[in-house]
Amino acid sequence: MNRVLTRCAQVLLIGILFVIVLYPLYQVLILSLRPSDDIREYIAQVQSRGVRFIPVYLWPRAFSLEQYAAAFDNIFLRAYGVALLYVIVITALHFPIAFVMGFVFAKIKFKGRDVLFFCFIASMVLPFHVTVVPLNQILHWLSLFDTPWAVILPGMFAPLGVFLLRQFINQVPDEILEAAAIDGAGLLRTLVSVVLPAVRSGLSVFFLLTITMQWAAIEPAQAFIRDERWRPVSLWLRAMMVTNPAQIFAPGVLYAVPMIILVVIVAARGTKIEGLP
Predict the structure, then answer these.
(1) Nearest-CA neighbor of 215 among 79, 49, 54?
(2) Interior CA angle at 155 toward 154 and 160, to 5°?
(3) Of 14, 45, 64, which closes a domain?
(4) 99-114: per-residue pLDDT in tens?
(5) What angle do CA 264, 197, 275 make, to 5 degrees?
(6) Which segments within the chain are labelled E, that is strand?
(7) CATH number at residue 146
(8) Based on the structure, what is the number of domains in the chain?
């Protein structure tokens, strides 16, 4: 009897958490299917001081695709494409850098390694606003300010990816690496044929976190990009929240689609997230 009650309590708790997590996305979806005039009325209600509770709708009162039709303009599509470009390029360039650096910090012994790793990881806790001035100077010195590389370069050397891969690579037994060296495998062969398969679950976590963080990033583009052509969709959404909040819900749904697809792919592949150290 106690086991049944415990199971029911667990299911109830998971169900409540599931609703809490998915409700905001569902509400945005519902609001995106309402006409713009109806949305303006809804926003006026929310902003009114006389309203104590925000109206909740489980189904759109008036169904319309007007917001989606308005979202597919050249500016939104360009910003969407720029964001995809940043994510793809940063992830493709960041992975080999983080993988090699993680291996060096985990398995290569040299004087000052731990101190250097501590200093490198300490940069994770620094707010972006602390590093914006030196990054600005470096980008100007390299003549990369106001170019796509002003966003790509900081993302390529993000410390979180190095930290994650170092933790996973650190769990690979040294005996396996020694056996590979005895068999005549060079460093590159060892990395590709031995270390890479051994940290497969860690790679899933790495790509999941890297892609989601870069997709939602706002600060680098806001600080280093002045050209509207190279501003990602996250900045476009932020500007729309101020200038035209009635047209924000459909783009918000489209903005969430790549991340939903990514999570579904990871879940379908049976990623062993419990392997995270």
Answers:
(1) 79
(2) 110
(3) 64
(4) 999 888 888 888 888 8
(5) 55
(6) none
(7) 1.10.3720.10
(8) 2
